[in-house]
Amino acid sequence: MSDDKNLNQLTVSERFQLARGKYEDVSTTTDRQDSLEYQQCLQDLIIEFELILQIVQSLALFSDNERLSELTTAYIPYLNLWFYLSQLYSKLQIKLGAASKGQVSLEFKSGNLKLAKSYAIEFLTNLQNYGILDHDQSQRLKLIDKGEEIIMSAQLKRQEKIDNYKKEQQLHHQLAVLTALKHDLNERFEEETLKAIYIDQLKFHILKAFDSIGLITVELEVLEKRPPLGASTDQSTVDNRISSSSADATGFTTRVEQLPQKKQISDLISKQGKILQPFTITSKSQLRNRVFGTGQVLPSMTVEEYLDYELANGKMMKEEVKDVKQDSDYESDEDDEAQLEKRRWDDWKDENPKGAGNMKANIG
């Protein structure tokens, strides 16, 4: 009760500074995140940040029609409230108000992750209204709002991670002044310098928020496919019953690691065509052939049958067969005329020897 009285006597700015300090402690602690003590700290901090957020929204400190240059410098840190709540909800494994019962369970994880994702998207949307997001980040936020998957090649993903890591390291180095001078910032720096520091902090949290959204999406998919509570016990009972009934003297058993069950196509392939689980297309006829057949794949047709099939389907062209008889007759006719022409020349040469036509000049 004394702590509540002390908090009520603090201003909103002082409560925000105190809550942010506790957030840094929770983020860097080495305690187990599934412990009840850690979860209660998260719950108390979430309640405090949500109370500060309600006060900020009631005061209308931010507007969609306002530019970043018009925003008061002292109000800029409060834009991080949605980011802090997103990070805290992503680690929460209890239901708010149920910590006194010690209910730390993954049963509440899915709902908390959805709240964390909504806070992260709202944080990015607020910063987009002030023009702090760059073009690529704005396009990525639009895809997230539509619920579409961001499809990138492995090379682009790797390059994006490298670029984001470099930006995070650079911004983290620039923001070291916030850790060193928590309460003396207004006295040490001018307003423009202080505003630039706060904007760098927002840019640093933008990178963290996009990473968190990706991790939350993957974790939600895993939790949705997680078997319900009690299913593992029933499954083990069935497996034991099968193993005891199928054992024989030779040691042969039909027990499998996982009982085959009918799966929907959505469990294997996503709407975007991404393969979620490896699968093999089989049919009863193929299984029957493996049991009663030869056990291996044999040729189903001869070479001649295959060639006939290819010719029938137009995949091969028949060799053009010419009319041999007609061509041979044509060639034989040409040969006959040539032979006759040669014979005529030979006969003419015999009848007209060389010099026979020179009757006047060489007679003597």
TrEMBL record:
Q: Name one Pfam family in it.
A: TAP42
The Swiss-Prot or TrEMBL record annotates one GO molecular function as: protein phosphatase 2A binding
InterPro entries given in the database record = TAP42/TAP46-like_sf (IPR038511), TAP46-like (IPR007304)
Task: Tell me which Gene Ontology terms the entry assigns under biological process.
Answer: regulation of dephosphorylation; regulation of signal transduction
Which parts form a coiled-coil structure per UniProt? none
Comp. bias intervals (Basic and acidic residues): 339-353
Region Disordered: list its residue ranges.
321-364
Superkingdom assignment: Eukaryota
Where in the sequence does UniProt note compositional bias of the Acidic residues kind? 329-338
Gene Ontology cellular component list: cytosol
Q: State the PANTHER family in the record.
A: IMMUNOGLOBULIN-BINDING PROTEIN 1 (PTHR10933:SF9)
User: What name does this protein carry?
Assistant: TAP42
